[in-house]
Amino acid sequence: MSLPTTTRQWILTNKPTDLPVLSGPSPTFTLQTHSLPSLKPNQVLLKSLYISNDPAQRGWIGANVDPERLYAPPVPVGVPMYARCIGEVLKSTADDFKEGETVLANLGWTEYGILDASGLQKTQDIEGVGITQYLGALGMTGLTALYGVTDIARASKDDTVVVSGAAGATGSMVVQIAKNVIGCKRVIGIAGGPEKCKWVESIGADVCVDYKKPNFKDDLIKATDGYVEVYYDNVGGEILDLMLTRMKRHGRIAACGAIAEYNKSDGSGIKNWFEVVSNRLEIRGFIVFDFAPKIKEATEQLVKATKEGKLKIDSSNETVVETDFEGVPETWMKLFEGGNRGKLVTKLK
After folding, report:
1. Distances (CA, A) of 21 to 13, 28, 79, 333
2. Spatial distance between the Cα atoms of 194 and 200, rounded to a whole number of angstroms
3. What is the spatial distance between Cα 64 and Cα 312, in angstroms, rounded to a whole number?
4. Mean pLDDT of 317-332
């Protein structure tokens, strides 16, 4: 097979203030073709097989983002959209990587790419676990869940834990870790729709509350009767505001994400902030990169829990969408439409 000399890429063209625009005169991304450079020593040529889709990517491209306030450099206009990928090695000048091997790489929205070998991580074969789980449950998603619920929220077996976005990639792992690894007294999920709520309960939640129901507020108040010690927040917005009123005194909130606010230029605002003062609540934001010194140890912990059957890691906790390269942005947008259960992964055709 002849090796590629060019690659198609989705380039960030216009930074959005609200929902990204995929068509029209000022699209957020444009599809372009670029030449590939020659391989240098200790580099590999990769073919992208799977692309990770993450809500955090929206924060990297916002028009109103102050780079000094962001935890990682934002995506500049004129470069491919950043993304974690699983790629196949097509050619290598590095001793540690051979043709045909699969690796984790920060390849972005590109069909082919040349990267330094130092930034690559080989995947391991785990019986019964699909390779795409390295983009989710056994990757940064699972590590985010573990770090947030253990180190940030410090959940214990005596705690009741509420998890928003519980049917999402991170939330579904938090539910399982809290209930099946830590052994928390009670785990309450929040998700959208009866099907997702039923699934959240099947992986460990004692109950899941449907935020799409008109009586959601009353249902959540009932589910959190007696108040709760821990809230793992993936959504922000109105659900966070409501949860401030459901926390026990000295309760702990792990602030992981705010997907309810990502595509709004004007946030909804918090009305119940005095609850933080009057009940001495602890709210702590975090980024998984803070966990870097423990990543190897934590990954081994996740793998061990999976082998012991404490974590359900299979096709049910990911949504893999087979996509032509032209459709990469459309698949990513499913994140903001509630179109996924668990991790959303793009499988390139």
Report:
1. 11, 5, 17, 10
2. 10
3. 39
4. 97
